[in-house]
Amino acid sequence: xTGGAGYIGSHVVRAFQQAGIPPVVLDDLSSGHRxxxxxxxxxxxxxxxxxxxxxxxxxxxxxxxVVHLAGFKYAGVSVDRPLHTYEQNVTGTANLLTxxxxxxxxxxxxxxxxxxxxxxxxxxxxxxxxTTPESPYGESKLIGEWLLRDQGRATGLxxxxxxxxxxxxxxxxxxxxTSPHNLFPLVLDALTQGRTPRINGTDYPTxxxxxxxxxxxxxxxxxxxxxxxxxxxxxxxxEPVYNLGSGDGVSVRQIMTAMADATGIAFExxxxxxxxxxPARIVASGxxxxxxxxxxxxxxxxxxxxxxxxxxxxx
Length: 315
Description:
Blueprint: H1 7-18, E1 25-27, E2 43-45, H2 51-60, E3 66-68, H3 75-80, H4 82-103, E4 107-111, H5 136-155, E5 158-164, E6 166-168, H6 183-192, E7 198-200, E8 212-213, E9 215-217, H7 218-233, E10 241-244, E11 250-251, H8 252-263, E12 270-272, E13 281-282, H9 287-293, H10 301-314
Parallel strand pairs: 1-2, 3-4, 4-5, 5-10, 6-9, 7-12, 8-13
Antiparallel strand pairs: 8-11
Helix pairs in contact: 1-7, 2-4, 4-5, 6-10, 8-10
């Protein structure tokens, strides 16, 4: 499992353990944490750019499939660091596939992103929605999907890519989101530091005037990776991509209200001007994932917020 020491990856590791599938983690710890990996899980400190290291890891641990979560994930920063983004996400994925081919590992689940859609012009995003990424990060994830597709055509590689939006919450208090860019950590940090969280724009054409987005609990996301890996391991035919979405979404103001309820800190968020390019609504359908992977969201917004707050207080 590449990137298994990160916020999402560490939850996927736990989910694989609970499913009785022994994981091996390879992570360069550029954004992950060694302490997020259980002591009984083999850990290799290194980069997916290092083909010999990846090949040796696959061979030494008798790996039969890969969950690829490693990557540079900050869309905004990728605009200023495009070459770094492409090296980590495109060259890194190509190198991983090279090592897999060398070692005869023939199955991979790729952690993709809803950033491949850019700003969709539909109310409900499906897998057929046009891919028009608007950042080097989104472009790099789409290229990663193409690499899997082309390798599948060339070698029979079994693969699928999971596209998802905003991952939040915590499956256990010792694992938490440490991103400096994500909404939940930003709001919780503001509240614990005595600052007032901010809403960017309140006059969007949505029920309460704030942007609506798709949020998914990290434990539900981890379960989707297990389901996809099992399906590939069983030789089942999967779609090349699946959206992991709620189908209805949550507004920023709803999140603020849930934050006040979960933390017990009453506040009225500051209102700032809307950010240029922010679409009013981005929500995806998870119907294909439900059909083929038996996947569904099991956590409510209250679950997402309360678990994030519990993990934040623990650290």
